[in-house]
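Ticket #4471: structure export looks truncated?
Reporter: QA, pipeline team
Priority: medium

Steps to reproduce: submit the single chain below to the structure queue and open the exported record.
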Amino acid sequence: MKILLTLAFISRETVLLLAAIPVSLAVGFALGLLYERWYNFSAVQRMTKRFDKLFLAVSKSLDKAERACRVFNQHPQCRELNPKQRAAMQSLSGKLTGELKQISAACENLADQKKANRSNSSSKPEKKKLKPFHLPDWSLIPKDARTDFPDATAYQSNLELLLAAMQQTDSQSAVLFVKLDHYSRHAQTYGGQTADAFLKKTASIVLRKLRQQDFIAQITDDLLIAIIPDIQSASMQQMAGNARKAVRAHRFINPESEQEVFVTASFSYTMFGELIAKNDSPEQELWDRCQNALAASQKQGRCQLHEMTDMGISRLIAG
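Actual output as written to the record:
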């Protein structure tokens, strides 16, 4: 009777609140289970763009499933499944077995394909018909009036001749960029003619370190480009290093005052084969490579030598 009297004094809102608490807990628990299942599946779905992560997730899931099955088989009641449980297990194991068979078949097919490719390549080797490399006749005109060296137009036409001569050969060639450091400062301090004289002297020093079959041109106020045909990477590295050392050791003299001026240059080069000619713009590709290597040289200090590799990596050679 006391309990009934006590309940009579409890408000309707309080009763509804007390009734809603267990319902909310039950609904929240159910939603939590659903969210966990959805999150785990969606996480796997998000990995489809990255095969390596997807493979790792599937491998871990299979490992967990194998351990769970081992624990299940060790349970005393695992042999006493009811018909509904047996049907569910058979359905799941059938689906899993089917997917695993597809994975296994794909691996076997790939192995057989690789084996067949190796067999075909060994039995019928395809040999590319190569022809000997012939040095093109360089064009030495037009020339830059300030230094009397061939200009950018001559460089462009000679590079096209080289790319054509390299077709169907296994020869490697290179372009060497030499940029006079602080040309504008020299021109402002000593005058444009003196700055041009420094560049001309730099070109002469570099040219003496090149071979007779190489070509050098003045491209801009402060930039020289040398075309080095039919050369190996080790020889090119040594040649570029010798040119850099020669410029670094030379004593530049101001022709007006006959005083010594500290002048340096930054160097970069890149190797290339006939495949570079198949690019939409091989000249631009070589230009971008060496410009990026020059930027690395000038950023880290004066008178450095960098190589730009085919992978787009600037490699410090000297400096």
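Status: closed, not a bug. The export was complete when the record was re-opened. Leaving a note from the reviewer for reference: The chain is about 55% helix and 10% strand.
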